[in-house]
Design brief:
globular; single chain; Jelly Rolls
């Protein structure tokens, strides 16, 4: 099932370019379609914790100085302030991401 098809089943705040997103003050949930070889990079300046789960395909994840190959049904928790890169190595892929927006530590 593609992200666009899934969007018809849930209440989303934004649907664009293969991405369905729902956001609140401190939390964002996102479903995103990936083509094989597509990459999503997030730099360390982003202050958020992330939970990611693979719904379809295979992804290589580099985060917090470590690397993982995840398949459908597997997930990862990435601590805030760490760079991360998602690469769809066998696609098409669908990635679920849930991120929290946090205030900087004093």
């Amino acid at each position: 099932m593609s992200v666009t098809q899934t969007a018809r089943c849930i209440r989303a705040t934004a649907i664009h370019d293969g991405v369905v997103e729902a956001s609140g003050d401190a939390l964002t949930s996102q479903l995103r379609d990936f083509a094989q070889g597509e990459v999503l990079s997030v730099d360390a300046s982003q202050l958020f914790e992330e939970v990611g789960a693979i719904l379809q395909g295979v992804f290589h994840v580099s985060a917090a100085g470590e690397a993982y190959d995840l398949v459908a049904g597997e997930g990862i928790v990435i601590p805030r302030g760490e760079p991360r890169q998602w690469t769809c190595t066998e696609g098409p892929g669908v990635l679920y991401r849930c991120t929290t927006r946090l205030e900087p530590e004093a």
